[in-house]
Structure to design on (306 residues):
C-alpha cells in the first residue's frame, strides 16, 4: 500500500512538473513593447505588434517566434512624414499592411541568443539572423537592416537623404502564459 | 508709459488670450493632448514676448527717427510670421504623442496671431503728430 502511494505521488509530481515546463516556454507579449527604428532623417516607432512566442532557455531548439507588425501604426512624430511613410513611395501599406517575422532556427553564443528566420517587409522576404537577449522576462534585440534590400524607398532625389542602413531597437516584455 | 510699449503689452496680452483660448478649444474638440509641447504657460509667455518684440522694433525706429520705415518693418513681421510656420510643419514630436498630424493645425494659426493683433490694435495707439 505504501509503495503504491509513493508511486502515485511520484507520478503526480512528474505530471505537474511537465505542465510547469510547458507553461514556462509559452509567452504572451505584454504592454510596453517598443519597436524603434533610426537612421539618418528617419526615426520613429511602430506602435502595434502581435505575435506568438515559444521560448525555453534550457531547450532553445524548441523555440519559435512569430511576429506581425502593423505598418499603419508607424509614428515618426510628424504627421506628414507618417503619411509619406505608408504611401506607395515607401512601405506601401495599402498593399503590404504588415511586417512579418517567422523564426526557423535558434542558437546560443556566450553572450546572447541568435534567431534566424524570414523577415518580410514591403512584400519582400529575406532570411535574417537577429541577435537577442532575454533578461527579466524581456526580449531585447538591436540590429540593422538595409531598407533597399526590401525596396523600401529608393535613392532617388530627396529619398537619398534617408540612410540605407536602418537601426532597429526592439524590446518585447513578456509574461508567461 | 510710452504708447508703443503699451501697444506691445496690450497686443501681447490679447495674443496670449486668443492663443490659449484656441489651444483649449482645439484640444477639447479634437481630443488631442499636445501639452508636452504647447501648454498654457509656454503659449502665454511666447505670445507676450512676441508682442513686446514687435513693439521693440517700432521703438528702435522711433529712436532712430526712421518712422517711414515702419511699413518695411510691417512687411518684415509678416514675412517672419510666414517663415515661422516651417517650424510646426517640420518638427518631429516626441514619439509617445498621438495624432502628430493634428499639430500643425494647432500651431500654425498661432504664429499669425501676434502680427494680426498688433496691426489690428494700431488705430488705438496712433500718436498725435
Amino acid at each position: 500500500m505504501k509503495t503504491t502511494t509513493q508511486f502515485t505521488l511520484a507520478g503526480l509530481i512528474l505530471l505537474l512538473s511537465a505542465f510547469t515546463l510547458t507553461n514556462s516556454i509559452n509567452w504572451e507579449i505584454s504592454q510596453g513593447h517598443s519597436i524603434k527604428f533610426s537612421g539618418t532623417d528617419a526615426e520613429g516607432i511602430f506602435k502595434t505588434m502581435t505575435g506568438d512566442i515559444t521560448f525555453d532557455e534550457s531547450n532553445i531548439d524548441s523555440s519559435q517566434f512569430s511576429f506581425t507588425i502593423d505598418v499603419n501604426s508607424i509614428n515618426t512624430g510628424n504627421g506628414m512624414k507618417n503619411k509619406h511613410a505608408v504611401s506607395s513611395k515607401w512601405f506601401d501599406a495599402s498593399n503590404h499592411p504588415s511586417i512579418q517575422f517567422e523564426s526557423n532556427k535558434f542558437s546560443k553564443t556566450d553572450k546572447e541568443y541568435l534567431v534566424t528566420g524570414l523577415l518580410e517587409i514591403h512584400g519582400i522576404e529575406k532570411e535574417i539572423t537577429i541577435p537577442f537577449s532575454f533578461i527579466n522576462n524581456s526580449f531585447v534585440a538591436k540590429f540593422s537592416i538595409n531598407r533597399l534590400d526590401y525596396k523600401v524607398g529608393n535613392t532617388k532625389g530627396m529619398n537619398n537623404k534617408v540612410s540605407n542602413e536602418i537601426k532597429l531597437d526592439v524590446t518585447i516584455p513578456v509574461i508567461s502564459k | 508709459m510710452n504708447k508703443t510699449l503699451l501697444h506691445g503689452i496690450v497686443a501681447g496680452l490679447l495674443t496670449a488670450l486668443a492663443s490659449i483660448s484656441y489651444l483649449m478649444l482645439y484640444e477639447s474638440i479634437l481630443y488631442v493632448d499636445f501639452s508636452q509641447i504647447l501648454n498654457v504657460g509656454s503659449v502665454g509667455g511666447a505670445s507676450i514676448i512676441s508682442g513686446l518684440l514687435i513693439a521693440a522694433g517700432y521703438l528702435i525706429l522711433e529712436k532712430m527717427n526712421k518712422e517711414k520705415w515702419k511699413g518695411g518693418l510691417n512687411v518684415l513681421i509678416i514675412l517672419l510670421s510666414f517663415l515661422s510656420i516651417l517650424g510646426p510643419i517640420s518638427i518631429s514630436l516626441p514619439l509617445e504623442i498621438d495624432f502628430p498630424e493634428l499639430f500643425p493645425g494647432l500651431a500654425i494659426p498661432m504664429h499669425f496671431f501676434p502680427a494680426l493683433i498688433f496691426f489690428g490694435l494700431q488705430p488705438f495707439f496712433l500718436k498725435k503728430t
